[in-house]
Amino acid sequence: MDVFFSTYGKNKNITITGTNGKSTTAKILYEVLKQEKRDVRLVGNIGNPVLMEKNITNKTIFVIEASSYQLEYSKLFRSKITAILNISSDHLERHKSLKNYIRAKFTLIKNQTKKDCAILNTNNFYINQQVKSRKFFCKIIKIKKEIKSTVLKKINNPYFMTEGNKENLLIVFEIAKILKIKFFFLLNVLRNFKGLKYRQEIIFKSKNLTIINDSKATSFSSSISILKSIPNVLWIVGGLPKKDDKFLLTKNNCKNFKAYIFGKNKNFFIRELKKVMRYEYHSNLKILIKKVFLDIKKNKIQEHQTILFSPAAASFDSFKNFEERGKYFNNLIKEINHVKR
C-alpha cells in the first residue's frame, strides 16, 4: 500500500476498513461510481491487488478495502476519504491485544491531513472511545443517527434490513454526498444489490423456509448482526474460534434460536451458547444438516424458519478459506434437500 501511495498518491482514493462489512460497502461504492461512468477501480482485499491495476490516469478513483494486517505495515499510505465501519475483537492471534488491533485500524486516520476526511460509525463503542480520547488533523464526520424507515422503503431490499447493513448504508450515503453522486444512481444500485457470495447470501427462500449462507462470518460479532434481525433461527455454528471471542447476546435475545454446533472445537461453542439457547452437537456438517431438515419435518412448525449457516469462526480447521466452506455448504444443501438455487 505504501508503494501504491508513492505512485498514485495524487489520485482520489476511498479506503474502507472495519471488522465487518468492508467488502460489501466497498463493492456498493464501486458499483455506484461505475454507474456514473467514472473510471473507478476496486482494489485491496477485494478486487485486484492495488499494484496490478493498469491504464491509470489522474481521473482514476480507487475504492480500497483495507485490512488491519495491511494497515499495521503501512507507514506512508494516506487516504483522501476514510471510513471505519465498526470495530470488535478480531485477529488477536496476530495483533496480540485489542488495543493493538484498534491502533492498526486508526493508522488510516492518524496519517490523514486537514484536506482529508474520515467517516466514523460512533455508534460503535471502540470507535467512539477513540474519537473522544484522541485528536486528529483531518475532518471527522460522525455517524450516530439511524437510517430512516422511509429511505429503507425506497430501497426496498431485504438485504439491508440487518443492523450492521443499516449502519454501513449511512456511511455509503455520507461518502456519496462527498463525491456528489446522484441519488438516482445510488438508489438503483441499492435496490438491485444482491450481496456478495457467502456474506448473508440467501440461497433458498420459500413460504416457510429461508436458507442463508454466511460463511464469511468468522467471529461472534460477524454473526450477531444477522441473528438480531431474524426471529426463528436454526443456527449452524462451528470452526476455529477467534482468540478471546465472546457471544454477547442474552437469553432474551435468543428465545427462538437453536444452535447446531459442528467441528472439533465443540467445547468452546457449548460454553459460550449453553446459557442462552438450546443446542446440539454433530461431528460434521453433513450429518448436522440432515438433522436440521429432520427436525423441521418432525416438528411441523408453521412459523417461518431460517437455517442460518454463520459459523462465527475461522474455516482453517477444515477448509482452505471461507469461500471453500461456503461452497461446500451450498453443495450439501442441494444434495440433502434437493434445493435448487
Task: Describe the protein in words.
The longest helix has 16 residues, at 163-178. The protein has helices spanning 2-8, 22-35, 68-73, 92-95, 98-110, 125-133, 149-155, 163-178, 183-192, 220-227, 266-273, 285-299, 322-337; strands at residues 13-17, 40-44, 61-65, 81-84, 117-121, 139-143, 201-205, 209-213, 233-238, 257-262, 278-282, 305-309. The mean pLDDT is 92. It has a six-stranded parallel sheet, sandwiched between helices. Strand 5, helix 6 and strand 6 form a beta-alpha-beta unit. The protein contains 13 helices and twelve strands. 39% of the residues lie in helices and 18% in strands. It has two domains: 2-192, UDP-N-acetylmuramoyl-L-alanine:D-glutamate ligase; 201-337, Mur ligase, C-terminal domain (Protein-Tyrosine Phosphatase, Chain A), CATH 3.90.190. Helix 2 (22-35) packs across helix 9 (183-192) and helix 12 packs across helix 13 (322-337). The radius of gyration is 21 Å and the shape is globular. By secondary structure, the protein is α/β, with parallel strands linked by helices.
Which blocks of ≥5 consecutive residues have pLDDT under 50? none
The percent range for helix content is 25-40%
CATH fold-level name of the largest domain: UDP-N-acetylmuramoyl-L-alanine:D-glutamate ligase
Number of helices: 13
